[in-house]
Amino acid sequence: MYRLAGVCMDDTLIDRLLEDLKKPDETIREQATVELWRIWFNQKGTYGLEILGESQSLLESGQFEEATSVLTDLIKDQPDFAEAWNRRAVLYYLQGDYHQSLADCQQVINLNPIHFGALHGMGLCYAASGEYLAAIQAFRRVLEIQPHALINQQLILECTARLS
Predict the structure, then answer these.
(1) Do 106 and 55 belong together in one domain?
(2) Which of 27, 84, 104, 120 is most buried (most C-beta within 10 Å)?
(3) Could you tell me the CATH number of the domain that includes residue 103?
(4) Distances (CA, A) of 112 to 32, 66, 89, 106
């Protein structure tokens, strides 16, 4: 069984979704991506989903500190909620705090090793910090999960170009 922060998940469902991410059919890949995000966002049920929504509304209205505070409180209450860590990592990244964003991304990966969003975020943080080799490694890890994710392929090329 896959474990997502103490929640047993159906191996066959997760395995199927991971395999679907590798299929040539774009529609199948998109459906698998949406389903994985749905699972991650709903890990803590309505409670967690509502708080994630509140933080997103605050983010969209430019209230970064308030959004960060809401997510920090959620993380204190539910430290095994990988998506709360991931959403806070996004906020830190948007504020240019790459070190803190990277730390939160790593926590997401500790809780959910297949979280391609956090791996992508790690790559973005490394690239923004000028750590291009580490960024390339992170983007390659994403491609192991989502081999058709063109953005990660493009970012590898950009980071490689910056190394020369």
Answers:
(1) yes
(2) 84
(3) 1.25.40.10
(4) 16, 26, 14, 10
Is the model's pTM score more than 0.85?
yes
**Shared domain check, 51 and 65:** yes
Tell me: the pLDDT tens digits for 31-80? 999 999 999 999 999 999 999 999 999 999 999 999 999 999 999 999 99
Domain range for 147: 115-164
Angle at 90 between CA 89 and CA 93, to 5 degrees: 85
* Residue 9: φ, ψ to 5°: -120, 155
- 146 φ, ψ (degrees, to nearest 5): -125, 80
- Whether residues 35 and 50 share a domain: the answer is no
- Facing residues of 3 across strands? 8
